[in-house]
Design goal:
The chain is of the alpha+beta class. Helices cover 46% and strands 25% of the residues. Strand 1 and strand 2 form a beta hairpin. The longest helix is centred in the N-terminal third of the chain and has 14 residues. The relative contact order is 0.19. This is SCP2 domain-containing protein. Pfam families: SCP2. One of its GO terms (cellular component) is cytosol. It comes from Rotaria socialis.
Length: 126
Amino acid sequence: MSKEDQTKISLELKAKTAFDELNKRASTQPTLVKRIGAIIQFDITKDGKFQHSWIIDGKQGFIYDGKPTEGTTAQVTITVDDNDFVELALGNANAPALFAKGKLKVKGNVMLAQKLSTLFKEQSKL
């Protein structure tokens, strides 16, 4: 898939708005993201098909779309549907419940994924 196609898909996803808001906060409060201390990749799906990835880089303190930058790897990859991610980011859903229902999949260090709860709690207050 070309970079242009990936950009078009990301613009169609609701998760893009949530990641844009998280990114705004990360740019003004880098310690908020750095507290995570790990690189976490979100693979967003729609109707069961992969659509786009975003990275929360808790080592550098920023968020970006796409795959991890060259020379880095994600310690954990979270796969979740576009709508479920938005509900999670808004605080209307929680990760353990989505995980239990099979709507959220975690590959890698599960303990690192739990660190995201503070980031999403802060996001849901906005």
